[in-house]
Design a protein that fits this description.
The complex is a heterodimer of chains A (485) and B (488).
Chain A: H1 9-17, H2 23-35, E1 43-46, H3 48-60, E2 72-76, H4 103-110, E3 114-119, H5 153-160, E4 166-170, H6 177-183, E5 186-189, E6 210-214, H7 217-227, E7 257-261, H8 271-286, E8 290-294, H9 302-317, H10 335-346, H11 349-362, H12 368-388, E9 394-398, H13 414-418, H14 425-430, E10 434-441, E11 447-453, H15 459-473
Parallel strand pairs in A: 2-3, 7-8, 7-9
Antiparallel strand pairs in A: 1-3, 4-6, 5-6, 5-10, 9-11, 10-11
Helix pairs in contact in A: 2-3, 5-6, 8-15, 9-11, 9-12
Chain B: E1 9-12, E2 15-28, H1 67-79, E3 87-88, E4 91-94, E5 104-107, E6 117-123, E7 126-139, E8 143-145, E9 154-156, E10 163-169, H2 176-193, E11 205-215, E12 225-230, H3 233-252, E13 260-265, E14 270-276, E15 286-287, E16 294-295, H4 298-306, H5 312-323, H6 327-334, H7 337-347, H8 352-370, H9 381-392, H10 398-409, H11 415-422, H12 430-443, H13 445-452, H14 459-469, H15 476-487
Parallel strand pairs in B: 12-13
Antiparallel strand pairs in B: 1-2, 2-10, 2-11, 3-16, 4-5, 4-15, 6-7, 7-10, 8-9, 11-12, 13-14
Helix pairs in contact in B: 2-3, 5-6, 7-9, 9-10, 12-14, 12-15, 14-15
The chains are: A alpha/beta (485), B alpha+beta (488).
Chain lengths: 485, 488
């Protein structure tokens, strides 16, 4: 087989189960392609040798009952992997080797998955373009010098360029959906509490959620049923009935009520985004869904709320990187001097910016005006969704207010960078599941995504709607493989 | 400095000052594992051998609440007659230090698990009530060791994450004796409940002490200073005494007192400034997003309530009502759970009054001298009970009993055996005693004359002489009776 890397996860699994290809062949194909794709800078750490060894082991004692039989998978470098360097895209963890495994990745290995390597991401998942990584920016396969989005930029790029058949990212404010949208791929952010946060380098604990990123909805549904589990090691993990989402997947969404929130028509939204949204509405109708206009009145406050809550939690979560116990240390005259040097040299600018914002909003005298108020607004935003879901089964919006931009275009303008997440952050604040599916191209030929937002724990319904619409949209990524030498 | 007065006042010239004291006691929860991890909590282990990835704050590690520690805190709250809050919230207290791996301490700030309560103290001048402001749960930090390596500070994380209860009193204490009584009472309640071993040498019980002074009769509280981390009652008293006098001196000099955090130097017996209010940390407290609010159900609390044993105050009341002890006696016997149990065992088969005197007198003196806890007493409750009966039935006198007691202390021997072996039985045969008494009377005709002419005080002299010739074995009561008959 010569097109192994362009197969979907589901196709690969079938081929392996039917013994048409071996795990070793599959693994080797992805490794070979990765060797030719260094320009994209997707990998922080390659695990190729070990992956090949594991693939051979799998082939020798193949267990086809596994859901991911000998499937090589590269993952975002925010997940701690036992014995394999885990950096979170930061200099401060450049020499960090965990002695433990995140629950989400362990779930993947338990189903026969094989670790290909660790994918680049924005430093501590803070960024929307993968330009804040200590290990350099990631190139989008869509076009030269185009950002893949962020923070799961390495993951999005790797999926779009066929470097991994499926992957996982994390989404705190849009870090799965926005890069999926920018690269013409599918990304699911599950309900908060669906996937364990144990072993994931924390950014903002009340918002962080791991999720699948893939070539299509079905692949994501399959990985979601694998990574989602109740975990007593994470106090915010929720014990609810989890489906075999991929098996129960159906394109029959007749009569489903889909809400269109008027507040998402933001000022200055490009015409092509507006058109994409209208196209999405038509397709949902074609699928038999009922379109209902709804209101989410506090939407405009979501972004400022997010940029208080997330940095506040981050400023505290990142306090542990102090040079004392592990990771990078810069020698100092005394303890305070060591802290200052370590953290000044170890963190990049965006991370420092957010630590500063977070420290500020939690400071005495400002706490009530910022943090407490943000928590109240967060509650209002959640109430908006609760109200809306009395009427509708899902909500349809664009994933992002624009298509991908050029590397360097927004690095000096953090606010315009933050605006990228305007459609995605309300979902994190409300703890809801949402998926981005590719739905069209802009006039430059760059992909654009539609976001479908579901009810809490309603992943099955959400995936069904995405599955039905995906079929009708029939999106094809036009990637010219400009980076292959 | 030992001011055992009803009130602890400081006088300078015409001015008299009252000292106002509040304590924040940090009590280590008696639990085999830490507050948010399953690491053991054993004292004295090799450095860094009781540390999990959570305790050392590795990336991606998350705290999971230890239900047992919650139970212990609720139990203690009930013991302090305090309000148990159905919802409490764990907050992060953010600050950097080498022995604080997370860069924050998980504590409870605005919503503690236990609210207002009270502790009753028995003082020589009556009972006083000390208000409890709150009890909250928090993690302990690790330990920085500065003197083991010439260039580096070493960190031991064994304590990191160990559960502490911070018990905050209202500023209701007014003297060093009250501080002593308060800490001992807290310790006693927690030991009855088995929620803290109260071992101050091992650091299971420490306190931050808040001290201010005000002119006597003034209602307005003065500016307070907080003395951090004092680890014995004696040091608390020394620190308060120094600090109160320092504050009074400042006022007398017309200077103002800065609200600040101070440290007690145990070598110089003085406090010194650690940081001023301006330099106070901004801890940036906020609810820990890794932990959900702690919601306690009614039946959870009810179940714990049902497990609460008889506490010192109730036991004291029972001892007074049932055994006729004086409040003072009851107090000293119940203050230690093991002592009260020992006492109850002794009096099961012996005279209560006698046993009370012997336990609070001879036994306490013995334990004190040998520096032993009562559960290590060289004299078992059973043998002490036997000794009481030997006194009660007149087999030996109280005086002989003391020497028997001393012999018992050297190896918990049965007092009956000792009395038999040493022939210490009391002489209670009236005929034998009469012989001795006649001899004393005959040997001292002058004294007899003096006595008969009205010098009645000499009666004691005759008793003493009889006891002497009997080798201490004469039954003093009978000697009294016969002497009286013979001399009058």
């Amino acid at each position: 087989m010569d097109n192994i890397t362009s197969l979907s996860l589901t196709e690969l699994i079938n081929n392996i189960k039917n013994k048409k290809i071996s795990s070793e062949e599959v693994t080797r194909s992805f490794i070979e392609r990765a060797e030719k794709s260094k320009t994209l800078n997707c990998y922080i750490t390659e695990n190729f040798e070990s992956a090949l060894k594991k693939a051979k082991e799998f082939d020798n004692r193949a267990n086809f009952k596994c859901k991911l039989p000998g499937i090589p998978i590269a993952i975002k470098d925010l997940f701690c992997t036992n014995g394999i360097k885990t950096t979170a895209g930061s200099k401060i963890l450049n020499n960090f080797f965990p002695t433990y495994e995140s629950t989400v990745t362990q779930n993947i290995w338990n189903e026969g998955g094989i670790l290909l390597g660790k994918l680049n991401c924005d430093e501590f998942a803070m960024g929307s373009s993968n330009e804040t990584s200590f290990f350099g920016n990631v190139q989008s396969p869509i076009d030269k010098n185009l950002v893949p989005g962020g923070s799961s930029g390495g993951s999005a790029s790797a999926i779009a360029s066929n470097l991994t058949p499926i992957t996982i990212g994390t989404d705190t404010g849009g870090s799965i959906r926005q890069p999926a949208s920018f690269t013409g791929t599918v990304g699911l952010k599950p309900t908060y509490g669906s996937c364990s946060r144990y072993g994931i380098v924390a950014f903002a604990s009340s918002l962080d959620q791991a999720g699948p990123m893939g070539k299509n909805v079905k692949d994501c549904a399959l990985l979601q049923e694998i990574i989602s589990s109740y975990d007593s090691k994470d106090s915010t993990s929720i014990d609810f009935k989890r489906n075999n989402y991929s098996e129960l997947l159906t394109n029959n969404i007749k009569g489903k009520k889909i809400g269109i929130p008027k507040e998402y028509r933001v000022d200055g939204m490009p015409k092509e985004i507006e058109n994409l949204w209208l196209k999405g509405i038509d397709i949902a109708k074609e699928c038999g869904a009922k379109i209902i206009d709804i209101s989410l009145p506090h939407t405009q406050y979501a972004l400022p709320t997010y940029y208080i809550v997330a940095p506040a939690e981050a400023s505290s979560n990142l306090a542990r990187y102090d040079g004392v116990k592990y990771g990078f240390r810069s020698a100092g005259e005394n303890l305070i001097d060591m802290y200052e040097k370590t953290r000044s040299e170890g963190f990049g600018n965006e991370v420092k910016r957010r630590i500063m914002i977070g420290t500020y909003v939690l400071s005495s005298g400002y706490y009530d005006a910022y943090y407490i108020k943000a928590q109240k607004v967060r509650k209002l935003i959640k109430n908006d969704f609760d109200e809306a879901y009395k009427e509708v089964d899902a909500i349809l919006t664009p994933s992002t207010p624009s298509s991908a931009f050029k590397i360097g275009e927004k690095t000096n303008d953090p606010v315009s960078m933050y605006l990228n997440d305007i459609f995605t952050v309300p979902v994190n604040l409300a703890g809801l599941p949402a998926i981005s599916i590719p739905a069209g191209l802009d006039n430059k030929g760059y992909p654009l995504g539609l976001q479908i937002i579901g009810k809490a724990f309603g992943e099955q319904n959400l995936l069904n709607i995405a599955f039905a619409m995906e079929e009708k949209i029939n999106f094809k990524n036009t990637i010219k493989e400009w980076w292959i030498k | 400095m030992n001011k055992n007065k009803d009130q602890y006042l400081i006088t300078r010239g015409k001015n008299t000052y009252e000292v106002v004291i509040g304590l924040e006691v940090h009590a280590q929860v008696l639990s085999n594992s830490k507050l948010f991890s399953s690491s053991p909590t054993k004292f004295g282990a090799e450095p860094n051998t009781q540390v999990s990835l959570v305790d050392a704050a590795f990336p991606g590690m998350l705290p999971v609440i230890n239900e047992y520690c919650i139970k212990q805190a609720v139990k203690t709250g009930i013991g302090l007659k305090a309000k148990i809050n159905h919802r409490s919230i764990f907050d992060r207290k953010n600050y950097f230090y080498a022995d604080l791996p997370q860069g924050y301490q998980i504590s409870q700030y605005k919503h503690p698990i236990v609210g207002e309560g009270k502790v009753v103290l028995d003082m020589p001048y009556g009972q006083i009530e000390v208000g409890i402001e709150r009890l909250h749960l928090e993690q302990d930090a690790g330990k920085s060791i500065h003197d083991m390596d010439p260039e580096n500070t070493l960190v031991d994380l064994n304590r990191s994450g160990v559960a502490l209860m911070e018990i905050v009193s209202k500023p209701d204490l007014r003297s060093l004796d009250e501080v002593n009584a308060y800490v001992k009472k807290l310790r006693s309640i927690m030991r009855y409940l088995n929620t803290c071993d109260g071992n101050m040498q091992e650091g299971s019980l420490r306190a931050d002490v808040n001290v201010s002074v005000k002119k006597k009769d003034s209602k307005k509280l003065g500016t307070r200073c907080e003395i951090k981390n004092v680890n014995s009652i004696k040091f608390m008293q020394l620190a308060i005494d120094y600090e109160a006098n320092r504050q009074v001196d400042l006022i007398e000099e017309g200077k103002s007192i800065d609200q600040e955090t101070r440290l007690f130097d145990t070598k110089k017996n003085m406090t010194r400034s650690m940081r001023s209010k301006e330099d106070a940390h901004d801890y940036r407290y906020f609810p820990d997003p890794d932990l959900l609010p702690l919601d306690l159900q009614d039946d959870f609390i009810a179940k714990i309530k049902a497990e609460i044993p008889e506490l010192p105050d109730e036991k004291k009341k029972r001892f007074i009502d049932k055994f006729n002890l004086s409040p003072y006696e009851a107090n000293i016997i119940v203050s230690d759970k093991e002592t009260s149990e020992y006492f109850e065992q002794v009096i099961k088969n012996s005279d209560i009054k006698l046993a009370t005197n012997w336990i609070t007198g001879e036994l306490f003196a013995l334990l004190n001298e040998k520096d032993l806890e009562i559960n290590k007493s060289p004299i078992s409750a059973e043998n002490l009970s036997k000794l009481m009966n030997l006194i009660k039935d007149g087999t030996i006198s109280g005086k002989i009993a003391k020497s028997v007691f001393e012999l018992m202390a050297d190896g918990n021997k049965d007092p009956v055996t000792i009395v038999n072996e040493k022939g210490l039985k009391q002489q209670s045969d009236p005929k034998e005693l009469e012989k001795l008494i006649d001899k004393v009377i005959n040997d001292n005709p002058d004294k007899v004359k003096e006595y008969k002419s009205g010098k009645e005080k000499l009666f004691g002299f005759f008793v003493g002489q009889v006891m002497k010739v009997s080798g201490g074995k004469a039954n003093p009561q009978l000697v009294n009776e016969i002497l009286k008959k013979k001399l009058n």
